[in-house]
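Protein: Protein BCCIP homolog
Species: Cryptotermes secundus
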Amino acid sequence: MAAPVKKRTVNENSNFNGNDGKSESSDESSENGYMEEYINQEIIQVDFEGRNPVDADFHGIKQLLQQLFLKAHINLSELADLIIGQNYVGSVVKQSEVDSEDGDDDSDVNDVFGVTSVLNITEKQNLECVQQLRSLLLELCSEHATDQANTLIRSLLSDDSQSIGLLINERIVNIPAQISVPLLESLSKEIKRACEKKMPYDFTYFILICKLYRSEKPQTKKKKKKKQQQSGGGDEPEVVWSNLEEEIINQEADCQFEFCVKGDSDSGLVGHWMEDDVEMSPYRRVLLLKANKLDPLIERIKTSLSQQ
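Structure follows.
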């Protein structure tokens, strides 16, 4: 069932070739590909790599899907199985294997830190999880989208000649956005190879569900005046994207809509707030974009993130 494991060192200077998902290593800096985590004032350097999803990744993938869909009525177990079952397209992010004398870190090596994949929600609509996802999208766009966006999304989902791919771009908090570049590049190449083999990955549109946070309006006039003075007097709420690269994708979306998920349990920027803090409320933004925009967007993401 599972294809041979593909190992790809994930860092912002990685070059993925088109053969079996192998990566070309870069020796420019020993620091490339490392995420610095601050735990008890210690800096921990972690090297990540992309691999084929396998059965052992089920719970890690499901947990990542849970942080995206929260309490939505979707069979996430079936969705995770679907991602694993089509492991010739898509990757999971794992800690690179390292030689360890004590061997106590095996569980960390097997943890799933991210997943990047695409699911054909037109061809797979006979599955319960895809039916639930399509129903959820129709319900949400009817409630939150503009009339124009609602009409477009409904027409695409009702037309089986339009192949719609659900882009999944999830990772745990604090992994730098630079990791998205090699993952998206690899996904694009895998989609092309699948199309060459006449597999159902010739998409016309992608749908991407993004996580973002908006600052809440101050509760009192006094606080509002103070915060407006600090921010230059603007009324526009601050927006924080969980995955920075998705802000760039948002700029090229053919249509979009968003909704608040504050009533659901969430992680990340949601939690306990000090009196002077600006509370951030979690939202989801649904993007619809033409599939032929993916490669140019990856180049834009690469350029933008390299300047940060």
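Remarks: The chain has a mean pLDDT of 81.
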